[in-house]
Amino acid sequence: MAFMPLAAYGAPVLTQGMTTIELDWHWATRTGGAVSAAQRRVLLGRLIRALPTMVSDAVKTRIGRRGQGRVEFGSIAVPDSALALAVEQEARDSVTPHVLEHSYRTYFFGKALAELDGVRVDDELVYVASLLHDLQLEHPTPGRCFAVVGGERAAQFVRNQGAPEDRAQAVGAAIAAHITLGASENLADPGGFVSAGAGTDVFGLRLSDLDAEWVQELLRRHPRLDFKRHMLKAWATEGAAVPNGRAAWLTRYAAFPLLVKAAPFEE
């Protein structure tokens, strides 16, 4: 991949009047993920605009309307580069089983949505970012967002494997961006890919676009392992540790716990 400015990765552009407010990798590493008052106002506007689509999607899923999105497990070529294999081992060594399975589901949900939308992705990059995106979810750092700390840790791991600096930075940026409201609108961006895949797994977003039998097969291959309970516990701890972060904002304004509980998965 040719070098791209860091702001090009994982940078949903938030606008307020004539002011552009970016929650990008520069912002993340500089502030630790602290959201300003102006950023909170713009995020709230994005949430309000997203609500009709979220409600419509939830209704379609509940009444059994499902799409055709899927990837064939027997033919999909999961990345097997030296970096990808090292990342798989790092994920197994670093996160709990329920987070590991969520990370794999995030990748496969993202792949299915990208193929459905006809979006080309850098497969190694989105695989690495998906597997490492919740490295710090259950290990909060007071005052610094878990997605930012996890992004920094993942970037350093990728760097240590000998990957080019722009690849390491892109992984970090994707992980830092994945909990920013609106990131999932751009599946071509690694942060958007991870956000979309995780959004399907956590909330059931766009589940109505996916083939129901394929989803059940994915859950057999990568079971949820009481994921809702673990996620809610980790999210509450993160919100308390980083009261000015995006996790706390999503709890306060987007009813994150209720959305998780209402997701169309048993656990």
From TrEMBL:
Domain named HD is located at 99-178
Gene Ontology terms, MF aspect: hydrolase activity
Q: Which domain of life is it from?
A: Bacteria
- Keywords from the UniProt entry: Hydrolase
InterPro entries linked: HD/PDEase_dom, HD_domain
For this protein, the record's Pfam families field holds: HD
Matching SUPFAM superfamilies: HD-domain/PDEase-like
Q: Which PANTHER family match?
A: CYANAMIDE HYDRATASE DDI2-RELATED
Its protein name is Phosphohydrolase
